[in-house]
Amino acid sequence: MKTRDKILDTSLELFNEKGYGNVGNREIARYLNISPGNLSYHFSKKEDILIHLLNEFRDNNSNYYNVYHQGVPSLDAFLGLMKNIFHSQYKFRGVYIGNQFVQMDVASSGQFDYVQNASARLENFRQIFTDLVAHDYLKASESGIDFLVSFISLFGRFWIQEVFLLQTENDEEKIIRHYLKILKKQLSMFATKKGKKSIKKFSLKNFIA
Which of 19, 46, 149, 190 has the fewest Cβ atoms nearer than 10 Å? Predict the structure, then answer.
């Protein structure tokens, strides 16, 4: 593995374990047994590591959305999309937006437009829910779609923070199944008969009661 990739992997591991604000470049270098100068050759500032990881996080999620959009809309497929997104958020939890130190460094760098990315995601969700209504998986008016977009925006941002605030479970699969269960129950309130069958299909495949 190249030194640059080792730096990124180790940084993410340390950010996840200790929090972004509690890890500095010297600690990353010490953990890798390389000199601070060697690290700064690849990344002159910690913020550069952060931006690279955030871009990787964004690109991973974009790939998941692209795969979803290439298929036929269904609640089974949508819940599968969210399962992948939750795993991605868990993997990058140490740099996931919501951390005040991350927010400050993102804002000061000018290299990652969080507002633009967040706005694009909301429009994406609006289109997804609109398509699910059109394909008879959801029954929702415009205000219902507005509610679902707001719900998924809040839920998608804050579930991961609740996990590490409460720290009652360390098993990633169990954690994500728990939050998928909450999500599918919310969706079931808007689901048509066809939609409920699609949710059940996802539940059976993923062992979610």
Answer: 19
pLDDT for position 207:
85
Same CATH topology for 1-44 and 47-205: the answer is no
| Confidence band of 194 (pLDDT split at 50, 70, 90) | very high
Decide if domain 47-205 falls under CATH 1.20.1070: no
Does residue 206 surpass a pLDDT of 60?
yes
Secondary structure letter of residue 99 according to DSSP? B
Domain residue extents for the chain: 1-44, 47-205
Distances in Å between the Cα of 121 and the Cα atoms of 33, 115, 148, 164 are 39, 10, 13, 24
20-79 pLDDT per residue, tens: 888 999 999 999 999 999 999 999 989 899 989 989 998 999 999 999 999 999 999 999
Of the candidates 69, 78, 66, 59, the residue with the CA atom closest to the CA atom of residue 117 = 59
Superfamily assignment of 1-44 in CATH? Answer: Homeodomain-like (1.10.10.60)
Close Cβ partners of 103 (under 8 Å, ≥ 6 residues apart): 97, 114
